[in-house]
Specification:
By secondary structure, the chain is of the alpha/beta class. The chain has a domain of 120 residues: 3-Layer(aba) Sandwich (Rossmann fold). Helices cover 60% and strands 14% of the residues. The longest helix has 70 residues.
């Protein structure tokens, strides 16, 4: 059985949340939360998502603050920001803070599905790159330690050979002096 991707929707407007739910629920597993502070606490408690779709302007904790909080936690989940204000400075600043993209409301179902698909694909690519990088780091660490231990073994053997020959040489010299 193929696991459906999981999306966290953070939207305080009930009509917008309903639209997003209707558009996405046939394809994805959804969790809907109405405010930023609760969403951040939910993620902090260990819930993992493939994508976060979040309104930028909400009472209490705004979407940009939630995004900054996520990044401070080390959460690299892709985030799509929803805004009613086209190209607002706040929406643009979220891109600098690590949002995948911002979408201007109202958004069509087709555009929403396209952007969600692109964000999920980007997240998968980042995860696979992270896994590959972790593998390469472990491999390099192992190689360094292996080479170091082999090098140390060779050095120990060389030192033992040197010591044996040196001790024999000193022994021969001392016998010559005794005679």
């Amino acid at each position: 059985m193929v696991m459906r991707k999981t999306i966290l929707i953070v939207e305080d407007n009930q009509e917008e949340a309903s639209f997003l739910t209707r558009a996405l629920s046939p394809l994805y597993q959804l969790h809907v939360i109405a405010n930023g502070a609760e969403a951040l606490a939910f993620v902090r408690s260990g819930h993992d998502f493939d994508l976060i779709l979040m309104d930028i302007r909400m009472p209490g904790m705004s979407g940009d603050r939630v995004l900054k909080g996520l990044r401070q936690l080390g959460d690299a989940t892709e985030v799509l920001i929803l805004t009613a204000f086209d190209a607002s400075d706040l929406a643009i600043s979220t891109l600098h803070d690590g949002a995948f993209e911002y979408l201007t409301k109202p958004i069509t179902r087709d555009r929403l599905l396209l952007k969600v698909s692109q964000a999920l694909e980007s997240g998968e690519l980042k995860k696979s790159e992270t896994i590959e990088l972790q593998y390469q780091n472990r491999r390099n660490h192992f190689k360094r330690n292996f080479v170091h231990s082999i090098g140390q073994t060779i050095a120990d053997e060389e030192f033992d050979d040197y010591s044996t020959h040196h001790d024999a040489f000193i022994d021969r010299l001392s016998r010559r002096r005794i005679r």
